[in-house]
Every structure is written in structure tokens, then in C-alpha cells.
User: What shape does this take?
Amino acid sequence: MKYTAQDLYDKLVNNYKIIGETGSIKFTVKDLSILIKTKDSVGNLIQEWLKAWFMESNIDFDENTNSQTFPDFLLDRDNHSKGLLEVKSFDFQRGPGFDLANFDSYCNSLITHAYRLDSDYLIIAYQMDDGIISCQVSQRC
Assistant: This one.
């Protein structure tokens, strides 16, 4: 089913009620599993979780084939210059510190890809306490 970024936000926040929910990251090799308590991989894992949630919720999307370039998801499978969705996450206690080096690259890309100005952003703030992650804030810009 085709969704807009606003539809996704409403479904994730109002229907799925993600704000305040908790989760954790477990890593297993053979018969030893550990709870991950460091935050350096949380953003990538939130994005992977979101992708799985899209698929489980039957939401049509394409994933950017290069995970290092803008945007993260394409919500219009028929026209990849529309329905652009970038996902950002940050530690609620430290505040957002999105990569400014990528911003310069983004600005330069507008010369040939001006449609990127009409993009949506899903911003997820999380808090991690002893390996337990909770979603604090979610907003769509």
C-alpha cells in the first residue's frame, strides 16, 4: 500500500504508538548472547527496524541502494523524485548532532537533483539506559 510520509508518521505514532515503547539490541555468536549497551550502532538499527516495520505493515517503498546517500527510503516506487524520506535518529540526552559534512554534499546535489528540496524527514530521538532503548520523541518535518 502506498503511503506518504505523513501517513507513515500517523501510523507509527498514533496507531502503532511507538513513543515510550522500549527495545534492546542483542548480539549472538554461537551460544553466547550479549545485550549491547553502547549507542554507536543504534541509528542504523532503528533504520533497519523501520524497514522491517514497513514490510510487515505492507507499506510500499524502495530502499536506497547506497546506504550512504540521500534519501534512506523512496515512498513512491513509480517516481523516485517524489516521496523521499530521510530518517534521522539521535540520543535524546545529548541532543541532535547530525553530520554536517553530509549537508554540504546534499547542497551540492541540489544542482542536478532539485526535487530533493521536497523531502520528508522522520526524526526519532531515543534514550538508552543499561541496554534498554526507549523512543522519546518522534516528529515529521
The chain has a mean pLDDT of 88. Helices lie at 5-15, 42-56, 100-109.
